[in-house]
Amino acid sequence: MKKFKFSIDNNPFEVAVTELENGQIDVEVNGSNYIVTIDREGTKAANAPAKAAPVAAPKAAAPKAAPAVAPVAAPAASTGAAKTVKSALPGSVTKLVMEVGQAVKKGDTVMMIEAMKMENEIKAECDGTIAKFYVAPGQSVMADDKLFDIATSGTPVAAPAPVAAPAPKPAPAPKAEPAAAPAAGGPAKALKSPLPGSITKILVTPGQAVKKGETLLMMEAMKMENEIKAEKDGVVAEIKVTVGQNVMNDEVLLTIA
Length: 257
Hints:
The chain has 257 residues and is mainly beta.
């Protein structure tokens, strides 16, 4: 195991790296564990003796999600084809919003995954019925792991659409009103984008008081909705982006004084 300590924008990070088999490493960042797969395609031919075998099967980790299938393997009655939705990035399952047998519409939130300290909404990619879950809350998943199946059929299921509307996430915005006092001076802290994406919603305005952990804006990245939260108490000094704007990794989104 190798350990590192460093800081980014005055934020301390403690990182422990442990090399695993099959081209994977276990990375612990401030107490949170992530399994990272390393692509060693370029070195496969040169390291034929010992390392050729592990590197040749980097996708062997995908079946790890299979054990969680048994408890929810009862698919809803449907004669249509099944659409499998996969994870776009590594993370941890925090909540299953839907249930097996429940009808969904394209765009409905089916489950939540925490990745890179952000809550990501995993949405249905088509109309149909939830046929099977491959994962359970608390389970870690890798990129391209199977999450759930949607059985499609010729029978429309419009009624259950409101069930998938547990999208009261924008509601936290009013919490900023009681905190109108923290006009503490000091240098403004820039809140930067953790990954490339597109701004879908801005929940605050310049001059608005916010609390640490409060959702400030929403960003779509890798087909998932990501909540960008305040890193400290303060007042929104300046908003650097607009709805619909594409941003790059480490680009400044707003500043908090």
